[in-house]
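Build the 3D complex.
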Amino acid sequence: MYQVPFGYPDLVSNPEPRCPCLLLLDTSSSMAGDAIAELNAGLQTFKNELEADSLAKQRVELAIITFGPVQVHAEFRTADGFEPPLLHASGATPMGEAISRGLDMLEARKTDYKQAGVSYFRAWVFLITDGGPTDEWRMAARRVHVGEKGKAFNFFAVGVNGADMRTLGQICSPDRQPLCLNGLHFRELFKWLSGSLSGVAKSRPGELVALPAPSGWASV
Amino acid sequence: MSKWRTASASVIGTSHLKHQTPCQDFSLCSLNNDTLICAVSDGAGTASHSDVGARIAVTHFIRSFRDIADVAAIDRDDMGRFLASLVELLDEEASNNQAAVSDYACTLLGVVASPSRIAYFQIGDGAIVIPSGEPGTYDWVFWPQHGEYANTTNFVTDANAQAVFQLRVEAVVSEFAIFSDGLERLILHEATRRVHAPALRPIFDWFRTAEADREATQALTAYLESDHINMRTDDDKSLVVAVLVQD
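Done.
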């Protein structure tokens, strides 16, 4: 075999580009029982799926905010160090505050990336609720619309049985209407989410990532 | 008398092999009397004919500039006309194949060098690297065009291509390299925005000892096919190296 005639050059190891994913999870009292148990199981699936993908786990960064009341459970960090919190249901549904807090966190994270010279992909924000906001949400909805339009992030909302889909529809961008979760298929949802994020986190310039259809867990 | 020792290589990425997609990179150098013309193009990932687009872009660049009388006079108008004629060619190719011109989306990096002047052209990602003031260190000519996100860039077929292409015409240099996106993260240090000189220096040094362009091309190809590279990138990658050597 032909040998490379020069000594192998020393190459750079840049940090992996990051794909931030923010989960906004409803933990209000109506989620108590099977719903919160299935959501917890779904998060465990999410961790396992991402961990099985050697590149995605270095690139996908997760943050979790729950609402009922608003609490930051995980700041943005790569999936290889992600430990899903055990969520408990209690309280009201301050969705507006959770969205605003989450988008603040996302903006701060992007500033970190820029300062560290780390390249990144468009963020995903994933809201899951079984109710409707009990606080002021119109300001948060405006930020969602502006952010989607300016391609600052992709905002997805998923309504669990009993969710106020009309208000969710107003929070979401007109181009990306909320989905209804079939039953309590959280595990299928998180499988889909990890698969989609893995695709995005490996995409190269000029690649439009085709999202798999949310089959098996959602209906529009 | 000095003359150019040049080589170009484009090698398919392991992910393209796995998914049985063609190599979407293309690169070429051509010496016509005193004028050296080199180009590298990287076809867009999901554009169905971008491998053809990349080949057309590179060959059209070389054809367009191989008889240029005065490199020093190349300006944005010339490059704008070249780009328009390239899009016209791609458009023609697209209609012959019932495809859209965007199916031929690709980046383009080009160099035209005379004995005294050199022109650098870029649209999209990848980079051209030249010697800096300090011996043994290098500067990029244009930072790769990535926009905000890692997976976005500009293509010759984009509507705003005429506005976003970059051009510099300067005094000629003694060596340069051109590489596509696949090698970007192995050669450029993103946090400091500097060229990692050790990533290129052994290649430039060896080029001065190479006996012929053919040997140099074989060496570059073997290097791009090596595990040393493929452990670090699964993308297609191209590398052009040109060094002025004493005859």
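The two ends of chain A are 57 Å apart (CA to CA).
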